[in-house]
């Protein structure tokens, strides 16, 4: 295969993937359509076996290897979905796989990768150091390197997502696809534009890692920082992916971290689907660029669902605080037996739920016979919180709302 990707390559990849990967559902969300004032469809790649589209390209790349290359084995560098996609498909094809991961990779991701039979090497503190370590191992053992995005086989495999959308026959005029290195976007836009050049294909990146946006516009690369969308936290796009995206993509939009958080929360609460930060980025684009998509028939690529459970819990709790459903209250009570029981009963009567209690009598600037109690309460909304405060104050307990963590 030449260093380019054609529609024919994607069709051929689709044939190879028949029965190998799931043809994921394309579903319409009535609620998200109402919120975004657009007709919103979701392509649920988070429902793949490894919960990511990465299986597609990994299989196509591995299936292209010669018998000699297969016998020697492959090596990849990844802390996330690419690692699992390569490990899983290498096991299916009987190919030895080595995955180099940064030393700080969450243990669950290491365990999942090992569970597919791959040898995991923990080297380097950042991706560049891991890549350097992988290059040495590759040279020593004569392994084939499986690039996460800048490879025509990988791009052709990812492009089968676009082919499925076309073959589903959905009435759409816009596709929003998350971009990290650009393999998914390059593949999808190649498939779509070959048959339906009238459909807009728009990439989305987090503002912290705008590498494709900057690459297309010829700007200096500025990516860096901690993002909730680590799956698209790529500092430099691929050479081939940049070339394809520059030629074929209609636009690349940037989104705020807070919008990605909100999108993760909305997809769980509304669609009952677990999505990682990268997979939520297209919905974040709909939220951040509302006017751009108003009235459009939009397909969002939900690229993956591998989010750390602790991070997910934090996102959901922060979302409740942002919406006024989780509030902090400071209550003045006399330091006498039964006072805490009384305010607990008042809060219960007001139909609020006590989540946490901080009872501190030594360090607040309050009289010796009085204490302040800080409580985290679950309420219906901010107006319900005000009703709780009114009830407590009316019973003689001075109360006020404390500032909430806000992402806006």
Automatic annotation (TrEMBL):
Pfam assignment, any one: ACT_4
Catalytic activity: L-serine = pyruvate + NH4(+)
Enzyme's top EC category: lyase
InterPro entries cross-referenced by the UniProt entry: ACT-like_dom_sf, ACT_dom, ACT_ThrD-II-like, Ser/Thr_Dehydratase, Thr_deHydtase_catblc, TrpB-like_PALP, TrpB-like_PALP_sf
ACT domain sequence ranges: 328-406
EC number: 4.3.1.19
Matching Gene3D superfamilies: 3.30.70.260, 3.40.50.1100
Keyword Repeat: no
Cofactor(s) needed for function: pyridoxal 5'-phosphate
Nucleotidyltransferase as UniProt keyword: no
GO molecular function, one term: threonine deaminase activity
Keywords: Lyase, Pyridoxal phosphate
Family: Belongs to the serine/threonine dehydratase family.
Name this polypeptide is given: Threonine dehydratase
Organism: Thalassospira permensis NBRC 106175
